[in-house]
Amino acid sequence: MTQLIPEQPTQVRVTPSRGPRRLTTLSIGTTLAIILLLAALFAPWLAPFDPNIQHIEIRLMPPSAEHWLGTDGFGRDLLSRVIFGARPTLLLVSLILLLTIPFGLLVGISAGYLGGWVERILMRFTDIVLSLPSLVMALALVAILGPGLMNGALALAFTSWPPFARQARAETLALRRSDYLAAARMQGIGGFRLMFGHILPLCLPSAVVRAALSLGGIILSSAGLGFLGMGIQPPTAEWGSMVAEGSKVIFDQWWVAAAPGGAILFASLAFNLLGDGLRDKMDTRHGE
């Protein structure tokens, strides 16, 4: 008699359907930063009026269909000046990052890899600069060098590099006795070639994240210089100086200060969200 074997049920693999893509901090921050960058690049085409032409007859006009954000004390269109104000702000931020990131990484990697008296001298100098109030030192340097875009970038860069140096030193100390660098030394690689050919690429991702996180503070510091008259000089549209102009009439014509203040808020929020998103993306300990 033949034994009947029960037929095994066929397993059907069901692929779960993907729902709508969830918004993340990185996507929101990237979108806002791209909007800011596009506004700066295409300012001559986006601005409805010339940002520097004065019309005294329409000074301090409230927001309307013709002037969406109103006009300032010289009758200039605030929307046009806010759009053009993104240009010097982003240029100043770019100059600061180009100065601070390479110098901070150089000091931190050199201190962590060489050690000894070199590390003590470099890190004590870093601690001294880090203990100084950044905006006060920037104001002092600008007062010595004179107001302007490049001088403002140099002044803010002088007090912005220590966090990059301390972070690079900590990562270099962790890598100095790693198997990766030991294998590189066995192949005859050492000195500056090891520092900047093998250690530097491993320190760059965290430096990029820190740079993105510090952009919001840099924008606020640059706006502070402009507010105090130490940044980019009029008639160039700059958000900090525009807030300073609007502060004189803030109780009666609030829009004169609110328009550039909102632009500063938008830029700081964009780069803070971008920095948080990059940190979550590059560091799995902060992942969701």
From TrEMBL:
PROSITE patterns: ABC_TM1. It comes from the Bacteria. GO terms for molecular function: dipeptide transmembrane transporter activity. The keyword Transmembrane helix applies. The keyword Transmembrane helix applies. Residues 86-275 form the ABC transmembrane type-1 domain. InterPro entries: BP-dependent_transpt_permease (IPR050366), MetI-like (IPR000515), MetI-like_sf (IPR035906), OppC_N (IPR025966). Keywords: Cell inner membrane, Cell membrane, Membrane, Transmembrane, Transmembrane helix, Transport. GO terms for cellular component: plasma membrane. It is found in: Cell inner membrane; Cell membrane. It is a multi-pass membrane protein. Belongs to the binding-protein-dependent transport system permease family. PANTHER family: D,D-DIPEPTIDE TRANSPORT SYSTEM PERMEASE PROTEIN DDPC-RELATED, OLIGOPEPTIDE TRANSPORT SYSTEM PERMEASE PROTEIN APPC. This is ABC transporter permease. It comes from Rouxiella silvae.
